[in-house]
Specification:
By secondary structure, the chain is an all-alpha fold. The chain is built from four helices and no strands.
């Protein structure tokens, strides 16, 4: 059994076409969240130059940027999943991530 067959079984996916679409959604979501993070931070007033006066300011900026990218990624994952007609897969995927992060009471396993 190949790697893709194991993924299809693990994710309960019926076809290679659906697997391809899911990979496209993951790719678009990752690229978009990273691309959108900088303009978003600039919009709310966080520029890399602001952090130059702090010790390890560059690292602080990147920590803040990653903290912004993470929730943005989650929202875009659902959005792109919906656009590509894969909402049920990505909604279950999202609930699984949130349960692992400690939000089990909001997303009980059915």
């Amino acid at each position: 059994m190949g790697y893709f067959d194991r993924l299809k079984t693990k994710w309960n996916i019926a076809s290679n076409k659906q697997l391809f679409i899911i990979f496209v959604v993951f790719g678009l979501t990752g690229s978009s969240s990273v691309k959108i993070a900088r303009p978003f931070l600039e919009y709310i007033g966080f520029y890399p130059a602001i952090f130059e006066d702090f010790i390890l300011g560059g690292i602080l900026y990147w920590i803040i940027r990653i903290l912004v990218i993470f929730p943005l990624y989650q929202v875009l994952l659902i959005l792109f999943g919906t656009i590509f007609f894969q909402f049920p897969f990505f909604w279950e995927f999202e609930k699984k991530i949130l349960r692992r992060m400690g939000f089990k009471r909001f997303f009980p396993e059915s």
